[in-house]
Amino acid sequence: MPQTPPLGTTDLTRWRLRVSDGGRHVWHYLSEAEAREWPQTREDRYWLGLDMDVPDLPRAKTPLEAAENGMRFYKHLQSSDGHFAGEYGGPLFLLPGLVIGMYVTQTPIPEEWRIEIARYLWNRVNADGGWGLHIEGQSTVFGTALNYVVLRLVGVDPNDPLMVKARARLHQLGGATGAPSWGKFWLALLGVYDWEGVNPVPPELWLLPDWVPIHPWRWWVHTRMVYLPMGFLYGKRFAAPLDDLTRALRKELYVEPYESINWPKQRNNVAQVDVYAPHTRMLDAVFALVGRYEQYHVRWIREAGIRRAYELIVKEDENTGHQCLGPVNKMLNYVSRWIVDGPDSRAFALHREKLRDFCWMSGEGLMMTGTNGSQLWDTSFIMQALVDSGMAASPEWKSVCTAGLEWLDECQIRENPRFYRSAYRFSTRGAWPFSTREQGYTVSDCTAEGLKAVVMLQENGLDRRVNRRRLRDAVDLLLTMQNPGGGFASYETINGPELLEALNPAEVFGRIMIEYAYPECTTSVVTALQLFRRYDDYRAADIERTVKGAIKYILDAQRPDGSWFGSWAICFTYAAMFALESLSLAGYTYENNSRVRRACDFLVSKQQADGGWGESYRACELCEYVQADKSQVVNTAWAVIALLHAHYPKHEHIKRGVALIMQRQRDDGSWAQEQIEGIFNHNCAISYPNYKFSFTIWALGKAARELDWS
Ligand code: LAN
Question: Is 445 a catalytic residue?
Fold first, then answer.
């Protein structure tokens, strides 16, 4: 790696995180004078990797003391409004959307962003000069070509050693013609890749009647919300006008001269290293057919498709405060609104403002995040850990809990979306979202974890800020989310046929076309319902039936070796924690149930020599347990919690896990960041840096309570 970041570095002591509006995150870069007026907090300093000036704590002798020390540190990271903010980076295909989207709409990129984006990519480059799909992945064409473009657009010179090496790596991989479809799409918008080289994304799909089994409304919400603006932009064949920089990029990105490239031939050309979900023959046949249609399409139908797509884009913007569901559709909608509404429109100004919500500043530079944060998710876990470990009862943590509850109260969504069925939205009344109320999407397990945290806090002596009716609203919503097999999916019920997966055009992600039921989501929901019914007999029979079905799903999802595959974090240890919690609530433990025994034996067989557990993200790709080189405190915490749920009788295994977590704790109570923790779509890792606090504290606190330490 070249010695210095390509555009230098900003003064880290001048960055501040401001939280507002129910958990909104915006990083500000202050002038020196402003910086004197607005001091940096410990929270800022933690996320910037600066010294926090916190005292060393007396060394913990028991797991409970270790949990308390952990919390003494973690409380410094609680934001002023009561939630726990955090860096939600990891994927490396998001900054390209941000920067290309800003470039083609001529949105000025602030100087401090340019410097810090370049520094982030410089920090995250692989030894071979390229970038992967995420920060721990091997170099791919997607990562390398697109981040190369980012660096050029923020002002890095093509002769910078970082660029020379990246270009060499890209050319070795075959050049940008081998980018997967989403990469081709962004390059085409920028005008450095020909639209003829992109498989069709017909906006006419949105004109199909709703009953058609492949109608986009039936797709997984992320996939449909990305393909919506893609259809619009493809229909328009929008490409930014060429300028010197993009002209230069046409030379730099390809092995062969740009003019000599046979574009239609590139549509299905995707570099081997990039492919996770190869095109099926059926998909290629459909593309061939739709490609024909493209040549002869009827003008007015195309226009109607574009209009329909635009109408739904506007509804999405309005429903989410111009935040959008996620970072990809955010930037595609952004470009779409610029084209139609123009740079001076109110809609575009609102959109521009919300770009900031996705930009997170870290010690390594500025990244674009996987959502506008993981506010609700992180806050509800630590609140539950505090209650479950008994710590919430101590006066020391009262204010942490009270502030947490106030924020959770704020965060619950009270009504259905403004554009509801007309925008194919699922109900939201009573839901908790993954990030903020403004983003406003129901997620099954986020609703469940939010509900659990609130009920636990309120039943432990805090004011009942969230009244019974609102808790019932959450329950009503959850009860509508169960699928026929008994399981719960992520944002909605499963609405489309699995056959649609054969038409997955995205190459780099697996199982993205429809919703699927997940053990994690299912467990969160059943545990929430079980907890709720301890205090309220509302819809008791429905809850009973739902829980039964869910437990059956969990049992059905178990593999013969006793494991469960985890879809949203790495991987089998994560899923085991959830699944065994479900089963223990149903009364199944190691003592009385062979399934639970098998699950525990599986987990214990993976315990590493030092007493910890450690899984590699490769497990999620390969769908098999893959040991990490080194044990990880987060995996260890999940395994410990799992075994505790199961009442696993050989306590020495659990205690060795606990000992490892204690041993890795630093003098100030914190734990160091280890491997990346999360995953999505089988193939892309994503950071949950707060897990090393919430789950370690939880595991320690729970173990302290449930095992004999005398
Ligand atoms: C998330 C993050 C949270 C996650 C859990 C709540 C953990 C899970 O149990 C349910 C699914 C959910 C909500 C989830 C879905 C997919 C997301 C939104 C992400 C992994 C964060 C980023 C990812 C999103 C799809 C990234 C943008 C990429 C595209 C392919 C559009």
Answer: yes
